[in-house]
Design a protein that fits this description.
Length: 495
């Protein structure tokens, strides 16, 4: 219980001001498409140079926590996820907003984010040593099967058509192969200089979600279907709290899955949210409601996204291995202050580290308060006419896309993917499996190639991929996931 001794360091006027400012800015930046948690934290690094180590880390930690939750705002209100981690949230969140329940959806988002975030921080506090050892066991083969597990979700993400969902996922995997081979460095499918660097995940996310939304809004406006959503819901905070905590199963699944995936280096929040969403959907009594405005989908996805924040710091602090891209940026923040992660960090720099960890708990509280406050003022967004909304989304999409690499080629790719997805959506194809394919494709390919080389060097690549407790467990889960997807699709077709 040593962490209790350092709460006094957090409760200073200066540190509380940093927490409030970092949390508010994080929620706002998280809601902007393209400004991912990684980018937001990276932008703050220079401002921490002249701060004390604990002060700088408090600011960075608050920003990290808040941006993960903030991305759900745009996902719910305008169907454009602020970051890849919020893809699953958009699937049911925006449907709730269209039904006049935007406020309820935002309440569920921030409350479940708070629960998942607190759970993840306590995992960080109490289980750091054993989980750090576990994270080391995830090598190339284990990470390959983790990515395959994510790919198996494709079959059940699109409730309208499993075949179209699979085709969309395969298209995403194909897009992921554009650019350099991750091992050999040879260019593939690069028929123009604009594709030389491949397709960035965030560029794909913005293009596949934002541009179709822009075109749909303009279509509605010019076809006299313009509808300003006046209703945002009248649910009270007490009702929302009771409802979220009544969904204990969704909260538990999201928090546990997020924590487990959080400690796996390179997995990230986008996988956590989608896996939690998928598993909650599978055990639901009526999974047909998912994708149509099911609150449990939001609760599972957002609790998973935020529960991975704390555990992603476990391999970082103990082994210098970042559990997520944002954790990698935080590693830079530690190093510039002369703090070197390792097994002795809790002895050599215990005051700084424990103060930082304690601040993450307080940051979750501020994230909840500020997020619920902003939820009350979401009405003006829902009341914006379609033509103005389309212009605003387009501006943010172009700005967010260009700011990733300061490259206009990304803007062209974004427009191209968005236009293609607009026409694809008319035919019943969903952008979610496509984005999932883009996200998981590089991870699966890179780890397969590495694992294959190691396996061949040992004499049997197949045995290398299929032996070991973790590999067998992941393979079993993949098989069960595929079987359930086939079963549920047949059941839905027969009914």
């Amino acid at each position: 219980m040593e962490f209790l001794n350092y709460f006094d360091n957090v409760f200073t006027v200066y540190h509380l001001a940093l927490l409030v400012g970092g949390t508010f800015a994080g929620i706002v930046l998280g809601a902007l498409p393209g400004l991912s948690p990684t980018m937001s934290v990276a932008l703050l690094i220079p401002f921490t140079f002249h701060m004390k180590p604990e002060s700088g880390l408090i600011l960075l930690g608050a920003m990290y926590t808040a941006t993960v939750a903030g991305g759900a705002i745009s996902a719910i209100l305008v169907n454009v996820p602020g970051a890849p981690a919020n893809i699953a949230t958009a699937m049911d969140g925006h449907q709730m907003a269209k039904k006049g329940k935007a406020r309820e959806a935002l309440h569920y988002c921030f409350i479940s984010s708070f629960v998942g975030g607190i759970f993840g921080v306590f995992i960080l506090i109490f289980f750091t040593p054993p989980l750090a050892v576990l994270s080391l066991k995830f090598m190339s083969t284990e990470l390959f099967w983790v990515s395959i597990l994510g790919i198996t979700i494709i079959a059940t993400l699109d409730s309208k058509s499993v075949i179209k969902g699979l085709l969309s996922g395969l298209f995403g995997l194909m897009l992921a192969t554009i650019g350099d081979n991750p091992i050999l460095g040879v260019e593939r499918f690069v028929f123009t200089d604009h594709l030389a660097g491949g397709i960035n995940i965030v560029v794909g996310l913005i293009g596949l979600f934002a541009m179709p939304q822009v075109l749909n809004l303009l279509e509605n406006y010019y076809s006299d279907k313009n509808q300003v959503l006046e209703a945002i819901g009248d649910s009270t905070l007490s009702q929302s709290f009771k409802f979220v905590f009544s969904k204990f199963k969704a909260l538990s699944i999201g928090s546990v899955i997020g924590s487990v995936i959080g400690i796996i280096p390179g997995a990230g929040g986008q996988i956590a949210g989608l896996v939690a969403y998928d598993q909650t959907k599978k055990i639901s009594k009526d999974h047909s409601n998912y994708g149509k405005g099911e609150p449990e989908g939001i609760i599972a996805a957002e609790s998973a996204n935020n529960s991975m924040v704390g555990p992603s710091l476990i391999p970082l602090l103990t082994l210098s291995i970042p559990g997520s891209p944002t954790a990698a940026v935080l590693l830079g923040g530690l190093l510039i202050h002369g703090i070197f992660p390792g097994h002795d960090i809790f002895t050599t720099n215990k005051e700084v580290v424990w103060t930082f960890i304690d601040s993450l708990i307080i940051a979750q509280i501020f994230m909840l308060i500020i997020g619920l406050f902003l939820s009350k003022h979401s009405a003006w967004i829902m009341k914006v006419p379609d033509n103005y909304m389309a212009g605003g989304i387009l501006l943010l999409a172009v700005f967010g896309t260009y700011s990733i690499q300061n490259n206009y080629s990304d803007v062209l790719i974004m427009f191209s993917l968005g236009t293609l997805m607009y026409f694809g959506s008319k035919a019943g194809f969903s952008p979610v499996p496509v984005v999932l394919g883009i996200i998981l494709g590089p991870m699966a390919e890179r780890n397969f190639l590495i694992g294959n080389m190691i396996g061949n060097a040992k004499g049997n690549a197949f045995l290398h991929f299929t032996s070991g407790t973790i590999n067998i467990t992941l393979i079993s889960i993949c098989i069960i996931s595929i079987a359930y997807g086939v079963y549920s699709s047949r059941k839905a077709r027969n009914s």
